[in-house]
Inverse folding.
């Protein structure tokens, strides 16, 4: 059995006396870190307005555009736009086996705290494998928990489709959805009081809370407003005076769909060609590497 490259990586460098394969591992780690930083700045940071779409897709829920009173919008996952409560902050108690054991207890306590995922308390049918997978993958299930606690009652009115994900458009003129705002804290306190008094009619979403607020089922806290006056000037500026562009919207949408369909078929052909060329190139590299190792392993005269 011959060593790879005739064992050349087992040699040590003349300065520090460290084997070359150790330096190779160090360079690989440095390269991975640099590559991660480059990809973060090139492929992740420029798409900051669309990060909510990614998190919504990962959570398995629709996304939402939250617009403030100045119509400045931000795309967020559905949980940030509709859920009143952050269930990960609820108090929970983990049953740890062998917790009293002096040696094993330390390991089991650390492992169960590391692997525990907060929906395990709220979702009874969550398997341990899914809980661990969600914990490692930073998946949030607040929407699923809120729907379960409201008995399946949930409002969704998707206005657009973005990247295959339905997107709601929500107007928040009073900063309800800001977790640190006094309005949000007042809603949390008011909803908790309602849920304690009405265990069979839970309120866990802003839309249901607003319905009960307008129906005067829930007393309005002094920190929040139930209405917002929009100036007529803003309404006039929001509607176009020339409606010709709207008349052509359907035809242009169909033209865009036809072009996208043609582009998809062309992309598949191009991808197949790239796969074939890449396979041939990889096979050639493997053969070349074997030849280099073979000639390097030949005994020198």
């Amino acid at each position: 059995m011959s060593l790879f490259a005739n064992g050349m990586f087992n040699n040590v460098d003349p300065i520090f006396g460290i084997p070359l394969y150790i330096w190779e591992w160090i360079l690989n780690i440095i390269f991975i870190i640099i590559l991660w930083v480059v990809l973060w700045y090139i492929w992740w940071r420029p798409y900051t307005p669309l990060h909510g779409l990614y998190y919504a897709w990962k959570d398995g829920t629709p996304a939402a555009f939250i617009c403030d009173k100045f119509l400045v919008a931000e795309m967020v996952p559905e949980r940030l736009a509709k859920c009143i409560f952050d269930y990960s902050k609820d108090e929970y108690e983990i049953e740890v086996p062998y917790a009293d054991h002096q040696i094993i207890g330390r390991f089991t306590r650390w492992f169960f705290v590391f692997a525990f995922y907060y929906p395990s308390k709220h979702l009874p049918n969550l398997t341990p494998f899914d809980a661990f997978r969600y914990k490692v993958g930073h998946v949030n299930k607040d929407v699923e928990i809120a729907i379960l606690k409201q008995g399946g009652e949930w409002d969704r009115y998707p206005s657009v489709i973005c990247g295959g994900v339905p997107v709601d458009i929500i107007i928040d003129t009073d900063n309800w959805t800001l977790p640190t705002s006094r309005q949000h804290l007042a809603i949390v306190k008011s909803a908790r009081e309602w849920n304690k008094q009405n265990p069979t009619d839970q309120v866990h979403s802003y839309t249901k809370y607003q319905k009960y607020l307008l129906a005067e089922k829930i007393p309005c806290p002094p920190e929040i407003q139930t209405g917002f006056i929009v100036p007529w000037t803003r309404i006039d500026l929001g509607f176009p005076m020339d409606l010709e562009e709207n008349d052509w919207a359907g035809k242009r949408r169909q033209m865009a769909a036809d072009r996208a369909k043609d582009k998809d078929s062309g992309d598949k052909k191009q991808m197949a060609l790239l796969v074939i060329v890449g396979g041939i190139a990889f096979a050639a590299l493997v053969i070349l590497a074997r030849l280099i190792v073979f000639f390097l392993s030949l005994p020198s005269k």
